[in-house]
Design goal:
Elements: E1 2-3, H1 7-20, E2 27-30, H2 34-50, H3 57-62, E3 69-72, H4 83-92, E4 103-107, H5 115-126, E5 132-138, H6 146-149, E6 153-156, H7 169-177, H8 183-195, H9 200-218, H10 232-239, H11 246-261, H12 266-274
Parallel strand pairs: 1-6, 2-5, 2-6, 3-4, 4-5
Helix pairs in contact: 7-8, 8-12, 9-10, 9-11, 11-12
Length: about 280
């Protein structure tokens, strides 16, 4: 994993990457500020496009209309990637570039993919064409699926150690209670979450991270991949239950957001997610 602490070291690495045209593996660019990452990711994408030395390249880059640069981002109230968002990438990434030597696909906030979508992305990563350059950026590196991370070049633009992810303790309590038969306590906690006006996005992000950690434990992957290492004891207890798969819980999350869009009360949506 490349730990590039300064802009100078980052530029030296990118210069080497471009000189060797080492784009066989997708690139994960991660750090702690999304706007900062997007800036550097776009600069990298533009430099890849300039390798073609096409006379019209610069003008198209400046006007943000280059046909070989495709930028994807999460959308909607859920701020998640959807199947509709990823379909163009899955269908078109195997097609040759329009005018450059490479086609560049940039995914902002890559951690906002549900497992079902990350797995669809994974299949494309495994079958990536040599003319396709894929850049993923994230401020939540630990939230990416390990199977995706293992297939990528990792570039850190961090300048200091990040503190552990902070999640509303009530959300974690509700998630842990959902693995027990303490239904009254769970309903009381859901009522408290509604009174605090927590967002469904915050709850589902924590829920996905929790199930992801369970999958890591079940598959005996390294503990440094855990989103909630400080909750290891609780995770181990939950891992002993017959818990749902990441794919199953991600489908339920999609249904939950659809219900919220239809003006179903947050309390009922949370009960659907957690009382199962």
């Amino acid at each position: 994993m490349s730990q590039l602490k300064t802009k100078k070291k980052y530029e030296e690495f990118i210069d080497s990457l471009l000189q060797e045209e080492n784009f066989h593996s997708p690139i994960i660019l991660y750090g702690y500020e999304n706007g900062f990452l997007e800036k550097y990711a776009k600069e990298l994408a533009h430099r890849v496009l300039r390798l073609s030395k096409n006379a019209s390249t610069e003008k198209k880059i400046q006007s943000e209309m280059h046909p070989d640069l495709h930028i994807f981002q999460p959308e909607g109230k859920s701020n998640l990637y959807s199947t509709a968002t990823l379909e163009p990438f899955i269908k078109e990434s195997s097609l040759p570039p329009f005018e450059s030597r490479y086609k560049v696909y940039l995914f902002t906030q890559a951690d906002r993919m549900l497992p079902v979508h990350a797995n669809a992305l994974l299949k494309t990563l495994e079958e990536k064409k040599n003319f396709t350059v894929i850049i993923l950026i994230t401020t939540e590196f630990r939230s990416l699926l390990p199977t995706v991370v293992s297939r990528c070049q990792k570039i850190s633009l961090s300048v200091e150690e990040k503190s552990p992810i902070v999640t509303n303790p009530l959300i974690l309590t509700a998630i842990q209670l959902s693995f027990t038969s303490q239904y009254f306590d769970l309903i009381t906690t859901i009522d408290a979450l509604e009174k605090e006006e927590v967002s469904l996005s915050d709850v589902t992000h924590a829920l996905l991270s929790w199930y992801r950690d369970l999958a890591i434990i079940k598959n005996n992957l390294p503990a440094n991949y855990l989103t909630y290492p400080e909750e290891t004891d609780a995770l181990l207890a939950c891992a002993k239950t017959n818990f749902q798969s990441l794919e199953s819980i991600s489908k339920q999350i999609e249904i939950a957001f659809e219900a919220l869009d239809r003006n179903v009360k947050l309390k009922h949506v949370l009960e659907y997610l957690l009382l199962r």
